[in-house]
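Shift notes (night). Ran Fatty acid synthase while the centrifuge was going.
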Amino acid sequence: MSMVKALMAMNTSVIAPNINFETPNPNIDQRVKVLTEPTPLTGDLVAVTSFSLSGTVAHVLLKRHPVVATKTKEDPKKNNARPYPRLVLVSSRTEKGIASIIQKLETMPYNNDFCSLVNQVFKEPINGLFYSGYTLLPTPTKAVHGSLLTQPIKRPVWFVYAGMGSQWPGMARELMWFAPFRQAIFECDRVYRPLGLDIVKIITSDDPTTFDDILNSFVAIVTCHIGLTEILRAVGIEPDGYLGHSLGENGVAYADGCFDIREACLGGYARGYASKVYKLEKPGLMVSVGLNYKDLTDLPPSVDIACHNSDDNTTISGAQEDVEPYLEILKAKNIFYRVVNSSFIAYHSRQVKPLAPKVLELFQQAVQNPKKRSAKWISSSIPEEEWNSPLAQYSSAEYHVNNFLHTVRFTEACAYIPENAIVIEVAPHGLMQALLRRTTKDGCVNIPLCRRQTESPANFLLAALGQLHMNGLRPNIEALYEPDSFPVPRGTPCLSPCIFWNHEDDWDSGIAPNIQNNEVTEVDLLNKEYRALFSHQVNGVVIPPLSLFLVDVYEKLCAQHHKNGLDETFVCEEYKMKSLVEVTSTGCHAQIVYNGNLMVYLDTILKIKVFLELSEDGVPVFPSMLREFIMSTNQISNLNPGCHAQIVYNGNLMVYLDTILKIKVFLELSEDGVPVFPSMLREFIMSTNQISNLNPGETVDVYLDYDTGEVFAPGVYMSRLVTSCFHYETEQQEEAKINSMNFVPHFTSLQKNIGTKKFLYCLIQLMIDNFSVKKRDAHITMVSVNSCFPADIVKHIQNKLSAVAQVEVVHSQSAAVACDLMLCSYESLSESLQLNANFVLVSASPGDVIDQAYNIVAHYQFKEEGLLLIKNKTKPLKYSVIRPQTTPQWTKCLKTKDTPLLVWESPNIDVQSTVKQINAMGHPVVCIFLLDLKAPKFSLNESFYQQQLSKQLKVNIFKNGEWGSYYYENVSPVPEMKYPIVMPEFFGSAKYLGLNLKDNTHNISNEDRKQELGHIEFSGMIEGGGRIMGLAQYDSDNCTIHPDPELTWHVPQEWNLQDAVTVPFVYTTVSETKYP
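Came back to this:
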């Protein structure tokens, strides 16, 4: 809060007053003034100091920004060199949130720095924000904005380059405002200027006769291809594939890296120059016809098919005298056609063959060293069956002359654009949009960058980039604007208006809101309906089963919707229970209680979504794969491995469901006797109509599939049923525990079977440190192969991994399953042809010959068994070595292209604190701690370190001549101290001591006794029966504490000595701070 107050003061130049202050303490230095009125801040420096109860002191000196943001609504067209608006990208959880953000941005005064902040925040995807949108600021005469539900998938990006016909007067005048485009055009101008062409004038002139010159058309389109490609590169949009239509393949060659700017420009010039200079014997004509090329069976032999545009559109080309009579035939058949303006040149036909030698000559002069086409480039000028030919391999002069002469197979090329692709048309006009809509697959989004005669081509281009953002791409829009400096000036608006919560969903349950919050379900244990709960006890406490909740919610839904339960299907999704609910009895009457408070089922069942389904004919709706089984109870033979159990139906729905759940519970009971309960259920489907057909006393078959976690029974289906150990409160007080930090080598051989669980825990912690999980709701998939590990060990590993992620356990018979962690025997591992797990924990026997080809991280071998940890080999990392001991500001070196490799070479490094500090930074780094002075001097060329780094562990510790890890070990309970602690007789006797941060009295050796513990807390008795507490100095030589009379107090009557011993240190710190 002090930091917030300081920042507010620097931003407003006013120091906020303090409340509830009247008279200063005379013991405080009077130079320290407590403000009670708003006070101007005159300087630019503010210091903030923080004191911690543990003794940690933090101090920071803040300096406010010298620049103050302007508050007027500036128009960038008037005050800046940039004449085009600012594109601002936003995201929100709901469509309503997007609309609110855009409205807020469009109505507030324009602030350039604020726009930069917003773009910085939303340039990367944020989990949970499902809608993306954009707006242009300051708002143009006609507002330009949009929003869309962003698909949670990575969509492929394809560039499509259009050819002739996309040119129009003044098409690039506003595009020249964008620096990447402008710089590319100036490069093109250096190529064309010696050839007598002013390319800037050609593409920016409004003269309608500009493109009467066919050469101008070719060079203008090519130049725009280059400029628009540079804009896309500048904002970071990289394609997964590209294709071109006719001249468009010249632009593809530039995008693919086969052409540089000079080669691309001269490629367009070659086509245009040959078309302009060399006159053909007969004028040609190109016509777009509304038929598939296969349907043009009556096409005259002298007319060629120039382009396969789509399934219902074809371009024909030939001599004008041959094409025009055929147009009369099409007109008579009422078939659509449109003449294409090609300056009376029949491109892609035999009519332009006389031009080919000159085009080839000019191309060969331009492209002297052809480059190989990449796999991203889908050819539209060579048939697919000839893609392996020498002609198709390179972007050569011959390739482009072939394009100039032969049919354009655009339809066939578009077939390679995958579903859900984002197709960007790169051309001065979206000429191909109608064709793309008819040729691309379902889910594809077609976005043109430009449009002919639009009111503002610059705004249209910015809106197109905004649409890319809406569809899941993340363009770096700031690359199109002058760079902004951070931090932003004082007075820049806050980002909080861009955050909107989603209040549209009810996350508690599907129960209607008319169920009051004070409604509870009373359970009468003498009622026959609930009498079965007496058998559902743990240590004498009644724990209501999951079936009770499911039945209760089901009955409430039926009553609320006035439904007959027998006609309904009950579906429950994503059930999660985080703690147990107890039934506490007062006499024979009870209520469901959670943590001592009456709760509604609406709150007790966490994250539950319930709804009813019924088909039109009244038949309950089940997934198709389950309908036959649930309706008929036929046995399923392919449920293997699994469990087949038989239960007896007694007519009670709650007991029936609970008995089905008990099958899973019994199978996962641990040997230590800790009870397990259903904690997670992905899907539960119940048809009471089917259950009602069962007769009391009837034997019912229940099937459990280990691989899928599915449970099948008549009228019941469950998926992903997970059990967990819950800790319920008891009256017993837990004994104190102390964590001990130990170093354990990764390769250890012991002669006795001791410490197996200790080393297993070490391996688990090693895996946790190297799992790539950043959030608590991450998932880890653990596969147990052929039950090679006992069930209690599997459960133990699952519980430990649950500290960092949600763990899903899958049972399998194959070691080839893809997962995060696999548990298997060495035999199963050897039989597997491929390793698809991130980590593999192997149970090995002494006689097993370990294949060194595996990436073995750790190996603990005991007398009769062994544990082997294997990490899947991945692509070798490229490291950037950083030595923090000799690099003062090493934390600023972590943002490198290569993986940072931090190396410490000293036995005095605090490994735990250092690793904690690095993890808090959030950078992916690899650490090496050389705590052994005899370790070889570190070098990436040293094989000793190459071998260790090949294991790709995040933390590598070398100590006592071995690689290993530190791990925490619980020492419980704390043993009695070997040396009694006494006080001087005049003080009385000490009864309790507080645990000291340096306390190691549970294992005092002669050397350790000399360690100074500092002040420790105590409580005890004095003569006459009085009770005291306080701080004392510990004498390690005599095991005596010496209380400080000034820091000793009487214990209040309502406290016990155990509570009192926890107070002195905190009380002293607060007291000394307030009354120094």
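The longest helix spans residues 214-234. Residues 989-1071 form one domain.
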